[in-house]
């Protein structure tokens, strides 16, 4: 599974509804796709002296991966090379949540449950099936954040993405720590020396871009509401 698949699973509560609002969910998933591509050497954030300005999106390899979600995102990044990553993520995020959910249904990791509120308004939920066993990913995240287990690169990436959408406390649950403590521990994971320098830099870059994109979206929504 891709990081984007795992992130979507962690953003679903026990009832199959998303723990975060649509904006945070979409941008978080877009960040996960960017990180999936970054870890495959496809996209990156430029350093000084490269063909695009430092801090901007640079595409290293446009060869298709064979995965539809990754390849669509790769095309979008390639078309917008040279822009700030946080300005490109909203384009990648458009319609992404539903595509990932549909993919998880096909993988039989969630099921689509339809209902109606007041017998009129349609509702949709995607409870997890755990067809492939218990939620080992959530257990791993909890062990890293709560008990200090050394994270795998995948766990660190997911923790960083969940931190960007501010859903670490929701995923970890009630473990006797405050939300502030859980967020502080999650933030420390991405800064620790557990992984290779290249992976650490990729996680940091995507985390920063996702956080910036969410902040911009929230500010825009607040400005619109106040006008």
Question: Summary?
Answer:
The chain is mainly alpha-helical and 227 residues long. Helix content is 57%, strand content 7%. The chain has a single domain (3-226), classed as yeast vps74-n-term truncation variant fold (Orthogonal Bundle), CATH 1.10.3630.10.
Percent of residues in helices: 55-70%
Order of helices and strands: HHEEHHHEEHHHHH
Radius of gyration: 18 Å
The tally of strands reads: 4
Low-confidence stretches: none
Task: Compile the SSE list and pairings.
Elements: H1 3-10, H2 22-39, E1 43-45, E2 57-59, H3 68-79, H4 85-93, H5 96-106, E3 113-117, E4 121-125, H6 136-147, H7 153-164, H8 168-172, H9 179-191, H10 197-226
Antiparallel strand pairs: 1-2, 3-4
Helix pairs in contact: 1-2, 1-5, 1-7, 2-3, 2-4, 2-7, 2-10, 4-10, 6-7, 7-9, 7-10
Describe what this molecule looks like in 3D.
The chain is mostly helical and 227 residues long. It has a single domain (3-226), classed as yeast vps74-n-term truncation variant domain like (yeast vps74-n-term truncation variant fold, Orthogonal Bundle). The protein has helices at 3-10, 22-39, 68-79, 85-93, 96-106, 136-147, 153-164, 168-172, 179-191, 197-226; strands spanning 43-45, 57-59, 113-117, 121-125. Strands 1-2 form a two-stranded antiparallel ribbon. A two-stranded antiparallel ribbon has the order 3-4. A hairpin with a 3-residue loop joins strand 3 (113-117) and strand 4. The longest helix has 30 residues, at 197-226. The relative contact order is 0.16. The mean pLDDT is 89.
């Amino acid at each position: 599974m891709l990081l984007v698949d795992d992130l979507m699973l962690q953003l679903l509560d026990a009832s199959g509804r998303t723990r975060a609002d649509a904006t945070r969910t979409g941008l978080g998933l877009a960040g996960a796709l960017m990180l999936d591509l970054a870890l495959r050497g496809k996209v990156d954030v430029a350093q000084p002296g490269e063909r695009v300005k430092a801090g901007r999106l640079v595409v290293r390899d446009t060869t298709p991966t064979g995965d539809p979600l990754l390849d669509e995102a790769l095309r979008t990044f390639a078309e917008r090379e040279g822009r700030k990553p946080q300005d490109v993520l909203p384009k990648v995020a458009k319609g992404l949540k539903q595509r990932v959910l549909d993919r998880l249904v096909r993988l039989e990791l969630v099921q689509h449950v339809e209902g109606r509120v007041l017998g009129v308004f349609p509702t949709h939920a995607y409870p997890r099936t755990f067809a492939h066993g218990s939620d080992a990913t959530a257990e791993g995240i909890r062990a890293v954040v709560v008990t200090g287990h050394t994270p795998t690169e995948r766990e660190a990436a997911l923790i960083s993405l969940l931190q960007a959408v501010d859903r670490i406390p929701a995923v970890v649950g009630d473990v006797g720590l405050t939300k502030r403590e859980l967020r502080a521990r999650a933030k420390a994971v991405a800064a620790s020396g557990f992984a290779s320098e290249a992976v650490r830099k990729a996680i940091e870059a995507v985390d920063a871009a996702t956080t910036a994109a969410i902040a911009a979206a929230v500010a825009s929504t607040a400005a619109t509401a106040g006008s």
